[in-house]
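== Polypeptide entry ==
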Amino acid sequence: MTIIQKKICLLGDFGVGKTSLVQRFVEGRFDDKYLSTVGVKISRKTLKRSYGEMNMMVWDLAGSNGFEASGASYMQGAAGALIVCDLTRRDTLIAFENYARQVRTINPGIQLAFVCNKADLTHTRDISDIDLLTVLAKLGEKFFFLTSAKTGEQVEDAFSHLADILEKGM
């Protein structure tokens, strides 16, 4: 059986739900207590694939207003990243675009998946699908996931999509 390991980073501003997405994906649970990530937390999940297994080493980076020197160093060796925004906070959409541009500058071969979290909070949603498509078009992308770490909606799909595009590059 073939086993491959891929480093995956989650990027986005403070409070967009990166840690909650990782918890939902890796542990299948949600905790509504907010705990800000300090530095980086690394989790692992093994996905069954047609050739064997993919070990996803998921690096949950602390949110910020862009990359500092340490954030850039975390991106070294990453095969993929999930760029995350919060559908209830319009300002995170600007950061969403900036993270994608910065990570591609640091690591040009990286594969990206775009995640718009907190889809369950429909009554406070502040970013439309049109807004998302407009930003993604600037980045040469078309596809995004509307996720909810709370309900689990499309969380597994987003990570599986990233695994799929990583395999195409192998």
Summary: The chain is about 35% helix and 25% strand. The mean pLDDT is 90.
